[in-house]
Amino acid sequence: MGARILVGQVKHETNTFSRLPTDLDSYARRLLVYGDDMFQRLAGTRTEIGGFLQAARRNGWTLVPTVAADATPSGKVTAAAWTELSGTIVDGLERAGKVDGVLLALHGAMVTEDQDDGEGDLLARIRARVGPDVPVIATLDLHANVTDAMASNANALIAYRTYPHVDHVERAEQAAALMQRTLAGEVRPVSAVARRATLDAVDHGRTHGDPKDAGPMDRILAEAARIEGEPGVLAVSVHAGFGWADIRDAGPSVAVAADGDRDRARSVAETLIDAVQKTQGQDTVERHSLAEAIAEARRRGDKPLVLADFTDNPGGGGYGDATRLLGAMIDAGLVDAALHAINDPDAVRAGQAAGTGAEVTLDLGGKIDPAYGAPLRVTGRVARLTDGSFVCDGPMHKGVRLSHGPTMVLAIGGIDVIVTSNRMQTTDLQAFLSQGIDPRRKSVLALKSSQHFRAAFAPIARKIMLADGGALCSPDYRRFAYRKLRRPIWPLDPA
Questions:
Q1: 326 lies in the same domain as 266
Q2: What is the pLDDT of residues 177-209, one digit of tens each?
Q3: 271 and 136 in one domain?
Q4: Host domain of residue 346
Q5: Are strands 156-159 and 101-106 parallel, antiparallel or unpaired?
Q6: Do residues 292 and 245 share a domain?
Q7: Domain end (from 245, 277, 309)
Q8: b/e burial code for range 177-188 (CB count within 10 A of at least 16 → b)
Q9: Could you tell me the CATH number of the domain that includes residue 129?
Q10: Residue 249: CB partners within 8 Å, gap ≥ 6?
């Protein structure tokens, strides 16, 4: 009879400097499904749950579902939401009776109102419930802030190896393969983690895909893969960390799973984290002022210029309603341009009230924190109204259904602005296509993202420029008031 494996997913990348709390409704706006519905929703998708399902069919496992939950990065997860989501997994163990293993899809940088280490709390509660002999293996985001509690309570932690993250299924398959070997008695994985006094390194985790264009993270990952081939080393995960989290252990780390030898795991992790620390300050991406970005936008080419406002990236906790980039585009009189997106439910409701084709004058964006760009008084035509839903084409999240919530395309002069009710990072061409805009036919594409957009948009772009819109997700960590972070630490403190 096949093994019974409990599975669950609870993800959140928490920007503790955000003023937006993350409640259950925040999850429902992106992904919140329980029980067998999580398999129906995610089967065949490029997700970890999709990968677990593939592995279960191959290995003859019976999967015990709990919850699949994912919310757009924002502020701390509310205590009520964390009680519900973590409780669904922990209580699921009791309802399931005996299980042979636990497979989880986590992020690794979750902070709740009452837990600085959400994943460590969850894994500790699971370990207390299943005891020391049931294998618990979790996949993590490349930007996890891995803690000692996470490493000591999981047999192995398996992180993405790409940024943009396009290897969700591969990492799920790696975790499942290690689970199968453990259940067969071939190995006994134990894990350890190491970190140094740095908040940022390995080029923020960026991977380049082309060996000829390898950056710091690519080289560290290549070394990790080499070490993973050594006898007794089962998994080596390199995490760039998430610096917009005021918790003790924020920053890069290395987690290693070894075969029954925690000292070996710790030794390997300590050696590799030294190499990680040496990359602090290395940066392969050039950032530009808005003036530089607009100057390039005035030039036309045979493909779109992609302008990415990395500081208003909802994928890092940005509010998605900063207006400085859009204001500069309007002032420059750009034509044949499109922007994804301004998050402004009030503006969408105004457009719905006016109707498709109507001209409206309204205050757009800048409502969550005007310090990052005040609302813009604009007049435009309501070009399109939709429910905002679409299915991703990939490479990231292929097959996953997402929703902007009620959405308006507002034509302001020559600029088509997608205005949404839900915050969403721009990662997929369908973000535009679903709203009647073909991004390949625009001269300028403006979007809210720092890196993930490259997977879908680099192939269609004549040039990519990261534009500094002066919003929440500034890479200058010295702008933020850290109170819990371990100190001294680079780059906040003198060496």
A1: no
A2: 999 999 999 999 999 999 999 999 999 999 997
A3: yes
A4: 287-476
A5: unpaired
A6: no
A7: 277
A8: bbbbbbbeeebb
A9: 3.40.50.2300
A10: 117, 145, 146, 147, 148, 195, 486
Domain check: are 175 and 72 in the same one?
yes
Same-domain check for residues 219 and 334 = no
pLDDT digits (tens, 9 = 90+) for 274-285: 999 999 999 998
Q: DSSP secondary-structure letter at 271? A: H
The last residue of a domain, from among 229, 248, 277: 277
Do 176 and 254 belong to one domain? yes
Q: What is the pLDDT of residue 211?
A: 76
- Using the predicted structure, report yes or no on whether residue 100 has a pLDDT greater than 80: yes
**179-184 contacts: CB < 8 A, separation 24 or more?**
179/5, 179/55, 179/101, 179/103, 179/135, 179/137, 180/55, 180/59, 182/101, 182/135, 182/137, 182/155, 183/3, 183/100, 183/101, 183/135
Decide: 189 and 234 in contact? Cβ < 8 Å.
yes
Q: pLDDT tens-digit profile of 451-493?
A: 999 999 999 999 999 999 999 999 999 999 999 999 999 999 9
- Which phi and psi angles does 17 have, rounded to 5°? -90, 0
Does residue 291 share a domain with residue 273?
Answer: no
Domain-embedded: residue 156: yes
User: Per the domain annotation, does 491 fall within a domain?
Assistant: no
Find the angle CA(113)-CA(114)-CA(120) to the nearest 5 degrees.
110
Residues 423 and 452 in one domain: yes
Query: What is the Cα–Cα distance from 463 to 447, expressed in whole angstroms?
Result: 14
Q: For residue 298, what is the DSSP state?
A: T
Token pair listed for 369 = 């924190």
**DSSP secondary structure of 102-146:** EEEEE-S---BSS-S-HHHHHHHHHHHHH-SSS-EEEEE-TT---
